[in-house]
Each structure stands twice: as C-alpha cells, then as structure tokens.
Amino acid sequence: MGVVIFLIILIGAWQGFYWLGVETLGIYKSYAFPSPIGVFERFMELSEDGSLWEALGNSLIRGFTGFVIAVIIGFLLGIVIHQFKFAQKSVKPIILGVQTLPSVCWVPFSILWFGLSAEAILFVVVMGSAFSISISVDNAIQNVPPIYKKAASTMGAGKKQLYWHVIFPAALPELIAGLKQGWSFAWRALMAGEVMTTSIGLGQTLIMGRDLADINQVTLVMLVIVAVGIIIDKLGFSMIEKKILKKRGLLT
Amino acid sequence: MSLKIRNVCKRFENEQKNTLHDINLEIKKGEFVCIVGASGCGKSTLLNLVAGLEKPTSGDIILNGKNIENPGPDRTVMFQEHGLYPWLSVMDNVTFGMKLSGVPKTEREEKAMHYLDMVHLADYKDYPIHQISGGMRQRTALARALTMESEVLLMDEPFSALDKQTSNRLREELQKIWLKTKRTILFITHSVEEAVYLADRVVVLSPQHGGVSNIIPINMERPRHVYDKEFVELRHRILEDVRGEAI
Ligand SMILES: Nc1ncnc2c1ncn2[C@@H]1O[C@H](COP(=O)(O)OP(=O)(O)O)[C@@H](O)[C@H]1O
Ligand SMILES: [Mg+2]
Known about the structure:
Number of domains of chain B: 2
Order of helices and strands of chain A: HHHHHHHHHH
CATH architecture of the largest domain in chain B: 3-Layer(aba) Sandwich
Strand order of the largest sheet of chain B: 6-7-8-3-9-10
Distance between the termini of chain A: 23 Å
Number of domains of chain A: 2
CATH superfamily of the largest domain in chain B: P-loop containing nucleotide triphosphate hydrolases
Number of strands of chain B: 10
CATH class of the largest domain in chain A: Mainly Alpha
CATH architecture of the largest domain in chain A: Orthogonal Bundle
CATH topology of the largest domain in chain B: Rossmann fold
Number of helices of chain A: 10
Shape of chain B: globular
CATH superfamily of the largest domain in chain A: MetI-like
Order of helices and strands of chain B: EEEHEEEHHHHEHEHEEH
Largest interface: A-B, 21 and 29 residues
Number of strands of chain A: 0
Oligomer: heterodimer
CATH topology of the largest domain in chain A: MetI-like fold
Bound molecules: adenosine-5'-diphosphate, magnesium ion
Strand content of chain B: 15-25%
Helix content of chain A: over 70%
Helix content of chain B: 25-40%
C-alpha cells in the first residue's frame, strides 16, 4: 500500500516538474522531456491500433525462443565443463571471458552472418545468455553437497542416474537462479538486437520513437520493457524458486 | 559372504606418512565388527576404502573373491550426516536405492514399509525430511540402507551427531534389528561404549602407525548392559588401548 502511494506521489511530482520545467518556464524542450500524461496518451493510441501489442508479442516470442535455445546450449556446455577436467581448465576460462562481453558486441557479427533478419536477433539473444547459463550450471553442479553423490553411488547409481536423480534435483534452486539471470541477459540482449534491425518489436518501436522525436513513445517502450522484466522475474522465476525452497524447508 | 582386507595401506597425496598402514582384517557373514580409534586416526578412510569411495595405495580389499574397485549397492554406507535427499519424502528416500536398480514401484514400497516399520517410522512415510527430527532422519537413513540388503552394511559413526539419549536408543534398536536380520555390519565409532555394546569384535586402530593395534572379541550375551561388571571392565580395557595409542 505504501509503495502504491509512493508511486502516485512520484508520478505526480514528475507531471508537476513537466508543467513547471517545460510548459511554464520552458527550460526543457517538449521533445526532450516526457510527461506521464503524454506517455499515457501514447499508450492508449498504440494499444488501440494494436501496434504496441504486436511489438510486445513479437519481442516476447523472440525472447523466449532465444532463451530456450540458450538454455539448451548452456546446459550442455555447463555439463561438459563440469564433467571433463580438461574442459574445466581450457574451455571454462574462455567462456568466462566471452561472458563479460556486453551482448551488443555480437550485433556486427549477427548482421554480417544473418542480415537484418529475425535470426540475427536470435543470435544476439543466444550469445548474450547461453554462456552465463553454462557458468551457472557448472557452479550449481559444483555446489551439490558431496554426501548426496556419495550416498547415491553406494546405492549403485551410475553416471546418468547420478545426474538425473541426484545432481539436477539437488542443484535445482541454484539452476533456477541461473536461469533467472540468463533470462534477464536474454531480455537485454534482445533489445540490443532489436534496436539494430527493422523487424517489428519493442526495440524497433523505441527507435521509431527516437526517429519521430517522440520522447513519450520512447519512454513508454522503456516502461514496457521494465514491466515485462519485472513480471517475468517476480511471477515466473522468483515464484518457482520460492516454492522449491519452501518444499525443502529452506524458506519459512 | 566374505570380506577380506589384506595388507592395505593408504597414503593421501601430499602426506608424509601412511594414514592407514598394513591393515589386515577379515569379516565373516553375519558378524558385527566395530572399529574404534581416536579422532583422525583413519577410521572413515578405512570405511571409504571398503565402500570403494577411495582406492588403497597398496593392498587388496576382496569381497566374495572380487577386488573392490568402485562403490556398489553390495556395500551400502550409512553416514554420520544422514545424506538423505531434502526434495524427497521419507518414503521416496527409503525407496531411492531400489528405484535406481529398477525394482517396480509396488514392490519397493512394500519393502520400504517393512523396514520403516522396523525403525518405527511407518507413520511418517509422507513427511518431508526437514519436518522430522535428527533421530528420525537417522532412522530413515537406516531404513534406506537396510532396503539395499547389501552383502555388508557400512556405518560411519551414524549416531555420533545425535544427543546421548537418542543415540543410546538408536543403538539399542540397531542391535534388535541386527539380531533379527543377521546382517553383516562394519560399524565405525569413536565411542568405546557403543562398540562394546554392539560388536562381536572390536578393532582398535592406532593413530601412531595407522595399523590395527588390537582386536578384542566381545562374547557377552545380548542385550548388554553398560553397568554390568564385565561390560565396565571390557570398556576400560579397550579405552586404555585407544588412549595408550593416542598418547
Ligand atoms: N581426502 C583426503 N585428503 C587428504 N587427507 C585426508 C583425506 N581424507 C582424510 N584425510 C586425513 O586422513 C586422516 C584420517 O582421517 P579420517 O579417516 O577421516 O579419520 P577418522 O574418521 O578416524 O576421524 C586425517 O588426518 C585426515 O586429515
Ligand atoms: Mg570419521
């Protein structure tokens, strides 16, 4: 409740500042400073003609597709670097290095290899999150208490059974945390990819706002991007995480 | 069933001397053997060697004529930290090993119930692990180990982390279960009292030379009573063995 009041006050202050700074004193130009009312009007227009929803839908589908591909690659890579000592020493440092690259760095490659296409965006998304996921998977497996594996192996568990029945379930809370971070990287990478190309999506809507000198549209898209990020984090990953921790008595 | 430990030495990497040195021990079918020794003298190491979790530096460990190379369900271990899986219920923990070896669901749950009854946990079968007490967790771990029906059951200080009362209660029950099932058990403890209470033979490990310093047969009738004259005397004798070695 307190948070809602705070937000209302914040938006009110923003609108007040706009009236004072832009409309009354003229310190800022109206094309450079958004207002809550302007953003809301833009929201109504773009949602009535459906273009906002189309952009949002496209971005979400692209984001999820890229994320799923990144999860598959990330898991395989994570298991390989965990399982083989040589990969641990040789491949892992490279992944750790590559992982520090901001995803926008992959844009030139993606355009050269895939053109201004949907595949180019997917490529940026996958590169932006797969490596982080693989590192999380490796760490999550590393942190499984050895006693779990020891107990299973003295009950006759083979390598495959060890992964399925012990390592993955034991590492699940950490794996989910890794996926959560992977998703946030994927979502950011998606925007980096979308602003570079012309396929319809939130990133492209944002750039269109800039080209039309429509600061309210730019702000609107930014808010939508934030909202999607928060909703998926809180209603998706965090809820699953909490449920698992609760079931294991790690959260009261 | 025959388990033979022959001239076994174990030296860890970067260690100056052998943690275990020239261990020889033979365990017969249905026998309850306890290994005692000061903390850090290599008791767990010996058990891990038999379990196949570690490899001896030299010597052989032979079960039914075959050299032990890897861990296997014929040598199930019960650890001090229960090693139960917090994402599974009591029942699913107990059936875990049977599930790995492909025992059908109804059969494995039947068997699990049999052993859960034995450890007085039948009413708790659907509980998650975090909602039962430390003593109940060790009972669950015991039931899980029993369901494996291993050739030899290895126990590494399974009651040491529990309070005295619970631990005494559990060793009483373990004895009853052993009398009923006649399993072969290799049991590790730092408590001489526990060893004299449970064992057919007590093996004293020496921290100095890492070898077996004494093997004492316990021929008292079961159930034993810790205040019996014979019990007290035996306990003293073995305690002196352990202490004498530790100085
Ligand atoms: N994996 C290992 N690497 C190196 N040293 C070890 C390892 N495991 C045990 N040790 C050493 O071997 C000795 C015996 O340990 P342990 O068998 O656990 O003793 P106990 O169970 O009798 O208390 C200790 O000094 C311990 O530090
Ligand atoms: Mg020990």
